Each structure stands twice: as C-alpha cells, then as structure tokens.
Amino acid sequence: MKHTGIKICGFGGQGIILSGYIMGKAAAIYDKKHATLTQSYGPESRGGACSAQVIISDRKVDYPEVLHPDILIVMSKEAYDKYTPGLNNKGMLIYDEDLVENDNKFSTGTGIFSIPATRIAEDLGKKIVANIIMLGFFTAVTDIIKVKSMENALLSSIPEGTEELNLKAFRLGYDYGLKKLNSKCDEGK
Amino acid sequence: MKIKPAVLTGVHFMNGDYACAEGALAAGCRFFAGYPITPATEIAEAMSRRMPHVGGIFIQMEDELASMNSILGASCAGVKSMTATSGPGFSLMMENFGLGIMMEIPCVLVNIQRGGPSTGLPTMVGQQDMMQARWGSHGDYEVIALTPSSPQEMFDYTIKAFNLSEKYRLPVLIMSDEIVGHMTERVVIPNEEDIFIINRKKPKNKPGKYLMFQPEEDLIPCMANAGEGYKVITTGLTHDERGYPDMSAEAQEILITRLCDKIRKNKDDIIEYTVFGQDDAEIIIAAYGSPARSALSAVSLARKEGIKVGLFRMITVWPFPEEKVLELATRARVIIVPEINKGQIVHEVERCSKGRCQVISLPKLARIHTPYEILNVIKEVSNS
Lengths: 189, 384
Hints:
The structure holds two protein chains of two kinds.
Chain A: E1 3-11, H1 16-30, E2 34-41, E3 49-57, E4 71-74, H2 77-83, E5 92-96, E6 111-115, H3 117-123, H4 130-141, H5 147-155, H6 163-188
Parallel strand pairs in A: 1-4, 4-5, 5-6
Antiparallel strand pairs in A: 1-3, 2-3
Helix pairs in contact in A: 1-5, 3-4, 4-6
Chain B: E1 10-15, H1 16-27, E2 31-34, H2 41-50, E3 57-60, H3 64-76, E4 81-85, H4 87-103, E5 107-115, E6 121-125, H5 130-135, E7 145-146, H6 151-168, E8 171-177, H7 178-181, E9 184-189, H8 249-264, H9 267-270, E10 273-276, E11 283-287, H10 291-304, E12 309-314, E13 316-318, H11 322-331, E14 334-339, H12 345-353, E15 358-363, H13 371-383
Parallel strand pairs in B: 2-3, 2-4, 4-5, 5-8, 7-8, 11-12, 11-14, 14-15
Antiparallel strand pairs in B: 1-9, 5-6, 7-13, 10-12
C-alpha cells in the first residue's frame, strides 16, 4: 500500500497552493486514488511563507498533515532551511536551484533533484509559471502521478486562455526532469 | 460567464469552504449575506460567484450583525438563507442568532473556527467556540450544531443543516474549523433528484385562522412567509401564539419551554455520530471536527498493537449525545477527549459520564493533534 506525503513550500504568490491543488486533483480525480491537500500560510497572501501539503494514498486519508515528507519541493531559501531537516530519511528533495543554494547538509534516500524553474519561466517570458515547470519536473522525477492525469488536472485548474502557456511550461519541466533522470542513470553506470 | 446549474453533479476536488457553499446551493439556499473573514472567506467568495448562476442573491453586508439580520429577513420572506463567519464575526452574530431562535426562523450560520479569543489567529485552526455556539446568545434555548470532518461532509452536512433548520424552525450552526474549511479532497455531488430536501411546514389554515406561533403536536409551528396573505407578526419579545408581545411569566414559561422541548424531544432524530471499534473498547476517544481524523489514525495504530480502543465521533455536538456518552462510559474504562481548545466538550463528556469512567482532556492549540500525541495517551492509559 502506498501512502506518500508531499510538501511544497515557498512564498505566497509563487503558486504553491495551486501546485498542490493540481497534484491532488490529478491523483484524486484522474488517477482515482485518495488525495488530501492542506495548506498553511500567514495573514498576508503574497510574500509570506507558505506551504501546501498533499497526501496521496491507496486508502482513505485520516490524519491530513505531513509531518515528515516523503517528497519535499522547495522554492525558497527560507523554506529550505525550515523544512529540509524534517524530510523523511528515505525521502526526496526537489528544489529550484536559482532560489535555493544547496549547502549539502542533507542527504536523502531517494535523491536530490534540482531545476532552475524560475529561470526557465523567465526565459518563457512568464515568471508566474515557475510552479507549473516545477510540477512537470516533479512528475518526471517521481513515479506517483501519471503525466496524462497531471495534464488533465492542470488544464482544468487554470484560467481560460492560458492553456497553451501552462502546457508548454509543464512539458519544459517534464522534459528537463527526464534528462536529469537519464544523466543520473548514466552517473550510476 | 458560463452558467452552471445549482447542483454541480459530479466528482470534484474541492475545499471544505467551497463544498459548504455548494451544499447550500444544492439545499436550495438562494440568499447569502456575509462579511468576509479568514478562514471563512472562500464561502462568501464561492457564493458571490455562484449566486448569479442560480438567480440567487449574494450581498456583502457592512458587518456581521447586519449579515445575520439580513439572512433572518430573507428567510422570513421564504428564501433559504445562510451566512458564514469566523472568530470575532461569530461573536457579533450572537445577538441576532438569538433573535432567530426566538422568532423561529430557519437559516444556517457557518463558523469556520480559527484561534481566539479576539482576532487571535486568523489563519490557524481552533475549536474554541464550541461553548459559545451553545450559550453565546443570552437567555435559555437549545441549538443544533454540526461538526463535519471533511470537505465531503461539509457538502453533505450543509444540506442536513438546512433540512434541520427548515424542519425545526431555527438557525442551525455548522461548527467547522480551519483545517476542514481549507482542506481539499474529493467531493462527490449526487444527482439533484437524489438529494433529500426538507422544506418548512406551510400553514394548513386559511389566512384568517392562521397563528404564526401555534405549535402542532411536534411543538413546531407552521411557517407562513411574509407576503403570502397570512398575518405575519413576529418579535424578539416574549410572545403568544399570535406573535403578539406578552411579557408575562406565563407566556415566558410556555414559549421558552416549547423552544427547548422542540429540540430536546426530537434529539434522536437530530443527533448523529459514528462509532468505530466500540464493542470491545476499554478506551474511547471522543472527538469531533478535524481532530477526529487524527483520532481515527491513532485508534488504528493502537488497535494494531492490540490495545482495545474505539472512536466515538460526534457529528452533532449540540444537542449533546448524552445517552450515548453515558452508555460508552458504562462500558469503557476511560474516555479521552482531544480538542483544539483548552477543554470544552470534555466538560459535557464528564457531565454525561456520571462518574462511571475516567475522562481525560487532551487540549491542543492552533494545530490538530498528531496521531502520535493521541496514541501516547492511549498507551499511558492502557498501561496504567
């Protein structure tokens, strides 16, 4: 039985909660698993520390919080410092390498993956899709949610007229993730 | 604008606040008045978007006093109505909540509880208004309060709250909390024809013979809406069956006794709870709202270790399930009550246990208990 706790954290305004929502929706609606999303944030909607917690499970989720994430996605230095120590020792760390400097203090069982998501988004001309690039990357380097399900959840969660941009961002992140995985495999040989 | 139907039949990934709004629309609510406040804002937000789709009205009022009053007014005119608030807003609604109790007006008041007192913790969870729900308005009365534990239950029990309010003619409380309001899960919305709806009893007499507060055998008076041709007289003052003010000891005795009895005598119809693993349980966890989810995890973990523990999850907290608690107290050795407050419902559990078992309060502030926090207490008790 699989029961995966994912924590996504960064600043308000980066689309952290939306990322969690799309992930949860993909699992709960399109992959037909159980998913629970909770969130924590300060009184300010932009700029403050913000986190989304998603549990994806084969069974009904009781306790809704993620104490020791199996997968931690960080999009700010503050979040890296605060949450990485709590990562499950068999867990996986995913971060935006331009926003977070990995000080190599942490080792994880399933590995550490980084992507310059915000920079790729800026190159695309829309910094706000960094979260979607990160989602694509997450989908590629983990084996939790089907790509098709993520794309369906993405398309049904974003404003009309932004489908092309978001799908492009998602695929850029996804392809980057596949390349990373391949190069990691090559390193292993 | 894409017009969506009132009942969004299908499978959704939706947070508790939105599910509450959808439940209200599915129950026939067509008037929402409120003042946005974290963590209940999403309910107002959803209503402002959805009401135009269904020909209903959303209105942002100047404050919570006016919000509560306007939903009473809308219901008097025959429109099912709701408001939603949290923290200080709930305090402001208390006086007019009492007016709704006195004038026997069906409507629904949702409290997505956050940490208090005062402005407290706007974005963090609390269950600190449970006694305020029971006694927050002045005077003697009975209330109905439901405590859902998931977005699906927010949908289902908002419909039930409307049904109970229409059936028993009073404002019904949904005492949810920030975790449930802001939690997103799968919500299944059934076909419209599969949703069970109760509407208020209408007068059986001709307009000349109808009395606004003349109870039937079930102690509930039929309700004529304003503008239907009936004489509609209503007041917050103690009144007779016509609705005329009657400030005598006798009138007070008759009216207040009936307002209490219409709930007390129907409590079996109103009270809902679930029990898990009770048959052999020596230890019972009594919980409601979001901590009930931690409690369920803790009970599952403990039972795997062979500890005989069960979960008593209250869905209706008011009226309090007195008889069930006494029954559990008679069979169990200990009842543990985890709550996100300094101990409120635990006092009711103590009262109703009548000393037949030990009752342990497990208070917590601003967060829900982890399953391990509850499990540790279970183990301590189990070893003692």
